[in-house]
Amino acid sequence: MLAGFSAAIAAGFDLPTKRADLSEADLKRVADVTRPTADFSKAEQYEAMQAGAATSINPVTEDSFSHISANIPFEEEQQFRLGNALFRKLWVSAPSSTQASDGLGPLFNARSCMSCHVNDGRGKPPEGGPSATSMLLRLARAAKTAEEEKAIAQADVVNFPDPVYGHQLQDLAVPGLAAEGKMAISYSEEPVTLGDGETVSLRRPSYTVENPAYGPLDPATTISPRVASAMIGLGLIEAIPEADILAHADPDDADGDGISGKAAIVRDHRSGKIALGRFGWKAQNATVRDQSADAFANDIGISTPDQPNAQGDCTKAEEKCLDMPTGVQKRLGAEEAPGPILDLVTFYSENLAVPARRKASFPETLRGKRIFYETGCISCHVPKFVTRRDTPDKAQSFQLIWPYSDFLLHDMGDGLADGQQVGLASGREWRTPPLWGIGLTRTVSGHSFFLHDGRARDLTEAILWHGGEAEKARNAFSSLSKEDREALITFLESL
After folding, report:
1. CA-to-CA distance for 66 and 81, rounded, in angstroms?
2. Do 338 and 41 form a contact (C-beta atoms < 8 A)?
3. Cβ atoms of 104 and 311 closer than 8 Å
4. Once rounded to an integer, what is the mean pLDDT over residues 131-153?
């Protein structure tokens, strides 16, 4: 039995221990091709095509994250384009003459999906600007009673909202309603001296809520900042078999290597069935559809069949919010974004292509790759997987992909802790984010801010913030010569 199943079995869950989509011969082939390399003299076969046949080989531009997967059948391209239009669509407050586009909020953080995921890329802190559209504050408290603890253990809920402000702070509101408040960030600089004497300054953030419109937050409420993640390769991530992800889990550190990856056990919002969480900063969502419906509900305040509350994140304490008109049009459906809209946005999100690697075979890149492996980074940033044969979408079927993530929860230490429990994830645990596309962040998103709250201003700072299970790898990086550190960053920038 896999070590990663101990937490799931303790909660009474039954998850697969072996892939059911492959023959024994294919299982051996997959094991061989996904085994980490020990040869850094040349690029591995197919390494530059990091999303398999779905990889985009378009020229590098600010639109590099917005291309359709290369192997999508022609007849499905229209679905992608319609989904793209809906992803960019600006929702308006109700009532409106544009009845197919109203229902915004009443409280919200953005008017469209693209407002947060600019160019389908990653978000950033406001950095002194007037808007924090691509960054928000999640609000939650841990369980207080045995009954609440049971609800989390059974994956019925991931945590409990603030009694007044709900699941997240909405800093925007429709006309006639006050927004909930504003996120305020302050930073303190902390110097870190590396092994060769070079000094790097890390900025430690502190978060508060300014001008809370409906009174103070509950004392038990924790605040967790989150920037929007890049949208590429999501359908391929969903197509990784649960058994292959869980094979890397070791919640009790049975092998004694200091890495204790833990599976996030959640419920699929649509089916209600237990599933492996793999999307979101704490892996709180099992599918791309779950992630999309959650964003519609909490970020934009738009109801869908999966989350049908037309008042969005309004709570009982926000009576005026609950009294505001909604955008539900019975002739169009029972929700503000009926099933076909959620279907198209999900399809678009599943099929945004991962760009091809740059300079994968260059000597400096290969040197950095060797160092990345030798310092232990691949213990969490697992290089490659092969997706399921039996995927609903053939474009994701049986592809060798290189996301550089295990999609498990890891204790990242006090420095990155937010103190907020999300399902099985503690206040110190985060899902390992995939690294593919990370080298194009500045090109696509116009900035180089990393980690869940954008505190790191470059990749070196991001690595130096690693603690907990990643502290050994972080210290190995810190002790490298300047030339070796630069080579490792060159490797990351090639992804």
Report:
1. 11
2. no
3. no
4. 92
